[in-house]
Amino acid sequence: MEWWQALILGLVEGLTEFLPVSSTGHLVVVQRLLGIGASEAANAYAIAIQAGAIAAVLGLYRKRVSQICLGLVGRDADGTRLLIALVLGFLPAAVLGLLFDSKIEQYLFGAWPVVAAWAGGGFVLLGLGPWLSSLRASP
What is the pTM of this model? Predict the structure, then answer.
C-alpha cells in the first residue's frame, strides 16, 4: 500500500465515521477502487484506523463497560446480565463467521456486494420511513 492510499483510506474512515453510514463498507469499496486487495496487511490497516472509533465508543459507554467488568467478577448483577446478553447476541455471528469465513470473504467483501447492501438498506429505510413517521405521530 502506498502512503497516498493509506491517506485516502484514513480520510474516508474519518469522514464516514461521523455519518450514519457504514464506514467499514466505505473502506472496503475504496480499497477495491484503489486496487488494494483484501490482503492481511490491508485488513490490519483497516482495523487499525478504526481503533479510534472503537476507543470513542468505549469512552462513551465507559460506565456500561465498567459495569460489565464488575459483572464479570460477580460484583454487579446488572453487569452480569448485560454481559450474558452480549455474549448470547454475539455467539451466533461468531459461530457462523468461523464456519463460513472463506465463503464470507469470497462473496461479501467485494465492492459490489457492499454497494448492493447499501442500496437494499436504503430502500428498506425509504419503505419504512412513512410507517416509522406514523408511529412517532401516534400518542
Answer: 0.65
**SS3 state of residue 101:** helix
In 3D space, the residue among 29, 13, 9 whose CA is nearest the CA of residue 119 turns out to be 29
Q: What is the DSSP string of the chain?
A: --HHHHHHHHHHHHHHTTTTS-HHHHHHHHHHHTT--S-HHHHHHHHHHTHHHHHHHHHHTHHHHHHHHHHHTTS-HHHHHHHHHHHHHHHHHHHHHHHTHHHHHHHHSSHHHHHHHHHHHHHHHHHHHHHHHHHHH--
Longest CA span, the chain: 56
12 with 30: CB under 8 angstroms? yes
* Tens digit of each residue's pLDDT (9 = 90 or more) over 96-132: 999 999 999 888 888 889 889 889 988 998 998 888 8
Give, in degrees to the nearest 5, the angle at Cα 113 between 37 and 40: 25
